[in-house]
Design brief:
This protein is an alpha+beta fold. The chain is 37% helix and 18% strand. The protein starts with a helix and ends with a helix. The structure holds adenosine monophosphate and zinc ion (ZN).
Length: 667
């Protein structure tokens, strides 16, 4: 079989597996097998740039940077929807329709109203051409590169699709993905996102599509627009869209009269909490396209459709007290302790109050009757205070000024929402939380030691910080509650083994505020060792890609602190990894013998010098400019357009840093 055909087959196969996994939710191969096939395709594509395809499944990982999103007119205007809040509103709407259409056999399509960011995607000859946000309805922003990374959106269509059309839908962030993203933020002491909808629309406007690719976004489609579409009703349209490979929720239903619409509304008012994503209502559409045409549009919305908004589930209950929790980074979270009450199928006892501003804004006071609502998040929210029921002797809430755990005076940095306890080394929940973070799976992954044991060790005066873990002896641990010889030995062993954990994870484990996994990796790669990092100035730090002022400031403060420096010296003494082990030079080969490579642009994983050294270590020559003698161009971000053109003209393969590494390590 020729290469072109092999590439073609792999692309089709990968498209099918993407479809099975992300649209049908029914994968037929393992993730590993999928990755292997994708790698194979990527390998062939870099060897054969002549078969490049912007809609290849290999493009899903993103990588393009968009500084300014271009504004482009919609071919068909994107309207909004009229809202209704009761069945009477729906009946009124039907009467208005019948006034225009007369007594005709009306049908309705009932769909859920997905709560995300609307999108319009143009397909031409079965290929994804362009994706625009709604914008003002007349024109939107071109977010094509970001949208292409969403796996459930087909890059190529299946079946018998029209030559050209737009499909409309909602980009959403399902609850599970949203919770996971927030969990990661909380772990590094960052403020979590407030709701899935804003996070979804924010994601669409990220400049780096590789970042978008990592977000668990999904897209639910509900409308097709174009000329000569092969169906006569909205419901058939949905069915067609499904057949062409789009994700169209199966909950949509055809109703033969208003009574059946009501049944749909009533059913989902109760059952919407079982859906994996947020909905705030139902959209009712006149089913027959012929009637839709007759009804037409008002200045803002179609006359043939209406949104029915669910009442959000609310209850009122009494605020018994406010308590304050201290997190690992010292951040204070106020929590409302409520008189237990039934809400959306669960009993609610507590609600987050977020921060001092929130308390101030609500003017919430102990003894107040408050309205509690369950949104997309697991923890319910307090919406408002029922002022009519406020007790006469009620006292304004005064936010705490001192830490409830260690009595230190709290601080609040300018521009930040939360108060902090600055007693980094003396505040028990901070000390315990920090050690718990240090031993956690993504950090030092210490086997034989869990969160509760950490608290036990601390409370018994055996550890004050994570360096103390390395001094623990079996006979010290044995007397602790529920600690057998075997488990004590495992603990000491686990601590010992952690000395081999690579630098980037040690850096993450230190628990420096705002330094999460990704940032730790970036810093490790850039500075190579802790000494260079600890000496970096604020200006040095902010010049590193993706390191902002807040992170830089936090690093400076961490390394200025004498106690931190002592702990790091101790850890070094125990033999922990405080520098990057360079893998790049180790496997010198002659793979590039006789080959000339030109390195151009800015790279993510390696510095330019690293790459040049690797070329030479593997027998190649580093060329200074592109010529007919060049065998490969290793291209990073921002490679000059003139160079790019020259390489293309001379038909020289352009490869990424990853592909370059594959070239060296490939067997
Ligand atoms: P609104 O923003 O309140 O004017 O509501 C209109 C928006 O609802 C549309 O722009 C869509 O993005 C969104 N929407 C969500 N689900 C649907 C659906 N099933 N049919 C039509 N529009 C929907
Ligand atoms: Zn404290």
């Amino acid at each position: 079989m020729d290469i072109k055909q092999t590439i073609q087959n792999l692309r089709e196969e990968l498209n099918l597996h993407n479809y099975n996994y992300y649209v049908l939710d029914n994968p037929t191969i393992s993730d590993y097998e999928f990755d292997m096939k994708l790698k194979e395709l990527q390998g062939l594509e870099y060897k054969h740039p002549e078969y490049f395809d912007a809609n290849s499944p290999s493009q899903r990982v993103g990588g393009t940077i968009t500084k300014n999103f271009q504004t482009i007119p919609h071919e068909y205007r994107m309207y909004s929807l009229d809202n209704s809040y009761s069945k009477v509103d729906l009946l009124d709407w039907e009467i208005k329709i019948q006034k225009v259409l007369g007594d005709v056999p009306l049908e309705y399509t009932c769909e859920l109203k997905y709560d995300g960011a609307s999108i319009s995607i143009t397909y031409e000859n079965g290929e994804l051409k362009r994706a625009l946000t709604r914008g003002d309805g007349f024109q939107g922003d071109d977010v094509t590169n970001n949208v292409k990374t969403i796996r459930s959106i087909p890059l190529k269509l299946k079946g018998n699709f029209p030559e050209k059309f737009d499909v409309r839908g909602e980009i959403i962030l399902p609850f599970a993905g949203f919770e996971k993203m927030n969990q990661e933020l909380i772990e590094i002491g960052e403020t979590p996102y407030s709701n899935p909808r804003n996070t979804a629309s924010g994601s669409l406007k990220l400049q780096n599509s590789a970042e978008v690719s990592k977000r668990p976004l999904d897209c639910l489609l509900y409308f097709l627009v174009g000329t000569n579409l092969p169906f006569n009703s909205q419901f058939e349209g949905l069915d067609n869209a499904r057949k062409w490979g789009f994700k169209v929720p199966k909950e949509a239903k055809l109703a033969n009269n208003m009574q059946e619409v009501f049944e749909f509304v009533d059913y989902w008012d109760v059952h919407r909490h079982t859906l994996p994503y947020e909905t705030d209502g139902v959209v009712v559409k006149v089913n027959q396209l012929q009637y839709q045409d007759e009804l037409g549009y008002t200045a803002k919305s179609p006359r043939w459709a209406i949104a029915y908004k669910f009442k959000s589930e609310q209850v009122s209950t009494k605020l018994n007290s406010i308590s304050y929790q201290v997190g690992r980074t010292g951040a204070i979270t106020p929590v409302a302790n409520l008189e237990p009450v039934q809400l959306a199928g669960t009993i609610v006892k507590r609600a987050s109050l977020h921060n001092a501003d929130q308390i101030e804004k609500l003017d919430i006071r102990v003894g107040d009757e408050v309205f509690v609502e369950k949104g997309g998040e697991i923890i319910p929210k307090i919406i408002a205070v029922d002022l009519t029921k406020r007790p006469e002797n009620s006292q304004k809430t005064i936010y705490i000024t001192h830490c409830p755990e260690c009595q230190s005076e709290l601080i609040r940095n300018e521009g930040e929402a939360n108060h902090y306890c600055p007693n980094f080394y003396g505040c028990p929940p901070q000390i315990i939380g920090r050690i718990q973070h240090y031993i956690s799976r993504k950090a030092m992954d210490i086997e034989g030691l869990g969160g509760e044991t950490v608290a036990l060790l601390y409370n018994n005066g055996l550890v004050q910080n994570y360096a103390d873990l390395y001094d623990l002896r079996v006979e010290q641990i044995l007397p602790l509650e529920r600690m057998a010889q075997k488990s004590a030995e495992n603990l000491v062993n686990g601590v010992e083994v952690s000395k081999n954990i690579p630098f980037e994870r040690v850096l993450y484990a230190l628990g420096i505020r705002f330094v999460g996994e990704t940032v730790a990796k970036k810093l490790a790669k850039h500075y190579k060792n802790i000494d260079a990092l600890s000496k970096a100035t604020f200006m040095d730090l902010v010049l590193v890609d993706e390191i902002g002022e807040r992170i830089a400031q936090s690093l400076i403060e961490f390394f200025e602190n004498i106690e931190n420096r002592i702990i790091i010296e101790r850890l070094k003494g125990y033999g922990l990894q405080f520098e990057v082990v360079e893998v790049i030079n180790l496997n010198a080969t002659d793979k590039l013998l006789g080959k000339t490579l030109v390195v151009s642009g800015v790279f993510e994983q390696y510095s330019r010098d690293d790459l040049k050294k690797a070329i030479e270590d593997n027998g190649g020559k580093v060329g200074s400019s592109i010529s007919a003698k060049t065998d490969y161009v290793v291209a990073g971000e921002n490679m000059g357009p003139a160079k790019l053109e020259k390489a293309k003209k001379l038909n020289i393969p352009i490869i990424s840093e990853t592909e370059f590494m594959e070239l060296i390590y490939e067997n």
